[in-house]
Design the sequence.
């Protein structure tokens, strides 16, 4: 999805306040600004997105709750995908010292 047509005509503040370990209050904030046409376009695009596949959600929920997920094949596949990246990052980190 691509978001375009951002302007300063409207804004929606989104704030989140949290306490830190030291007891100090920290605040994260983001402000979205867009025109009415841009918002309408976003709503239309969101309406075209596929619906949630509840059959798949329920199947995976059941597998997770029964302890049958992730499978050994899934774990091995993830290790094969991210392993080389971790090794590369480790090499880059040790060469910069």
Sequence:
């Amino acid at each position: 999805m691509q978001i375009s047509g951002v302007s300063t005509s409207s804004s929606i503040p989104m704030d989140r306040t949290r306490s830190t370990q030291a007891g100090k209050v920290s605040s994260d904030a983001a402000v979205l600004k867009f025109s009415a046409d841009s918002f309408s376009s976003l709503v239309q695009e969101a309406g075209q997105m596929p619906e949630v596949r509840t059959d798949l959600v329920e199947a995976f929920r059941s597998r997770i709750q029964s302890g049958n997920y992730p499978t050994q094949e899934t774990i091995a596949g993830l290790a094969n995908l991210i392993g080389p990246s971790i090794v590369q990052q480790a090499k880059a980190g040790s060469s910069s010292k």
Notes: The chain is about 50% helix and 20% strand. The chain has two domains: 1-49, 55-97. The two ends are 40 Å apart (CA to CA).
